[in-house]
Write a structure and sequence with these properties.
By secondary structure, this protein is α/β, with parallel strands linked by helices. The chain has 4 domains: 1-40 and 145-172, 5' to 3' exonuclease, C-terminal subdomain (DNA polymerase, domain 1, Orthogonal Bundle); 46-143, Nucleic acid-binding proteins (OB fold (Dihydrolipoamide Acetyltransferase, E2P)), CATH 2.40.50.140; 247-432, Rossmann fold; 443-599, Rossmann fold (3-Layer(aba) Sandwich), CATH 3.40.50. It contains 22 helices and 22 strands. It has a 7-stranded parallel β-sheet, with helices on both faces. Strands 17-22-21-18-20-19 form a 6-stranded parallel β-sheet, sandwiched between helices. It has a 5-stranded mixed β-barrel with strand order 2-4-5-7-6. β21, α18 (559-566) and β22 (577-581) form a beta-alpha-beta unit. The longest helix has 31 residues, at 204-234. The radius of gyration is 30 Å and the shape is globular.
Length: 682
Amino acid sequence: MARLSDPITVLKGVGPTKAKQFAALNIYTLEDLICHFPRVYEDRTHFVAIGDLQVGEPACFRAVVMNTPRTSHIRKGLDITRVQVADHSGRLNLVFFNQKFTTEQLQYGSEYVFYGTLSGDYMGYNMTSPSFERPDSPPITTRRVLPIYPLTAGLSNASVLKAVRQALAICDPPEEVLPPQILEKYNILPAEQAYRIIHEPRSMEDVQQARKRLIFEEFFVFSAGLALLRASRKGKTVPPYQKTDLSPFYKALPFTLTGAQQRAISEISRDLQKGTPMNRLVQGDVGSGKTMVAAAAAVLAVQNGQQAALMAPTEILAEQHFASLQKLLAPLGISVALLTGSMTAKEKKQIRESIQNGEAQLIVGTHALLTDATCFEHLGLVIADEQHRFGVSQRAALTAKGTDPHVLVMSATPIPRTLALLMYGDLDVSILDELPPGREPVDTFLVNESYRQRLNVFIRKQVSEGHQCFVVCPAVEENEELNLKAAEVWAQTLEKTVFPDLRIALLHGQMKGSQKEQVMTDFAAGNADILVATTVIEVGVDVPNATLMVIEDADRFGLSQLHQLRGRVGRGKAKSYCILVSSNKNGETVARMKALCKTTDGFKIAEEDLALRGPGDFFGSRQSGLPVFRVAGLSTDMGILKIAQATSVEWIETLGTSQTPEAKALRKRIGQLFARSEGTIN
């Protein structure tokens, strides 16, 4: 017997070339292969007579070959084989492209089982390249429920099917991680059965039972992992904060905090006085004031003799945080330092020395904070901004630079509660559901190309009043197949044809970091009227003078992403607008974008976006720290999620000491899951 950890090259027919193709699907071992589940199934168990075949509907049928197949050589690279088959209800012409082998496999007078899709009209019908097998052969492509797998270039469904069948024949499926009483209570298949049935179901009912088991397993393992994280936190102790007077901080503010901000700061203060490491998420909509909450937490850390580190995903955002926090906290005697990757070696050396000797008390930076060269004297508080932009391990890498430091993560992406339970199940949550006084909602409109002239007039009007404008495009370069507005081409068009008298700037993700920083710095300083950009501006851009956001091909973005882009304007005192430009006439798509025009509530938008797009695309990026669920769907399997979460919390109390095979396997699986999600369970 082979082991699950063995490479897939132990399989017959899987050499270096095929292994490389499997690697493109992140399949390296037999376990990876067995856990590469079908995306859909085709039920090929029901037979239809030739006379009952429907155009466009795939079907299975038995038929006898009525003549000897003939192959015609049309041109180089194109051979066409034709043959006629029949049953009691009629005859049908079959056509095969570049499948000359069918002349030998389809024998005159013999019966076969075919599976294919009828095409044609009243002038004549035929079927192109159907699958076929002899009725007495093992059911491989017909007479079965056929799994259809996610594929990549060069890898056919038949190849994956063959490899999976081999793998299941030479090694056992993954170990059982669910306790027997749970299997019995919820009528769940054992692992041994589920992992085999998901690949070789006898019926669609089999598929449903296997999927139910694997969905429950995925949610159960992840929920148990989060429960372990919480349990490990409770076992750690740190000196409770004694100094919690924030009145000097409040007096230094040029404005009054919202009730939601004050509530979040109180929750953080209570956490810091408990004597256990804080793990809290501050979640708020665009412009809800998370930075001031983070600043208050940093003040508390410094008051108690500790350093605080704020990690931002981009240098632009880090520099903005540094500028605002230094202005606010320097008068309070707090030393704020900035550390980014683009600094000179000399600058980095000086900053790192001040961090190591404790002179720098609040350090704002990017991934440069994670390098081995950056050492803290006494790191007591870690703040991660725009948390979904970091992998779980990056948060862990920063916290490892201190001794059980308090952790505060912030997200400006409103997250539906169901998704937050999974992403941040190890965290306590504070929600900022109020906007600071004076913040006006951004008026949002959906228009098509017929409004282009009026839109250009409106852009010019905003600029003439001394304001600036963002124009966001979904692509960087022109692509004829996609037919999308490309930032590079559109910027040239605006500069040369539409607004030759205005100052146009261009920003996209393919530019060097230093170039991007310079473009944004110049735009923020008012040195350009219009910034044409991709979604690189979605996070960490604060230009109070920008009053207009134009989003081209808006139907190509998720609702939450559109909401984030809209949040780049409306940050000053002037009235601001967001224009969604789309010619897409699909009813659901139009309704989705109109929903954005009706509300500025990011949480409502997020709920709808999750239902429409699923968690994978929810952030417009897979780099969310969220594990990739292979079978489970957050928008479709919430009922199973709730049961799995409740069950795992009950079970986890005995997991630490239990020596049952299921408990051992569960501990192992949890470690693998979090390692795959760029994190670890300590």
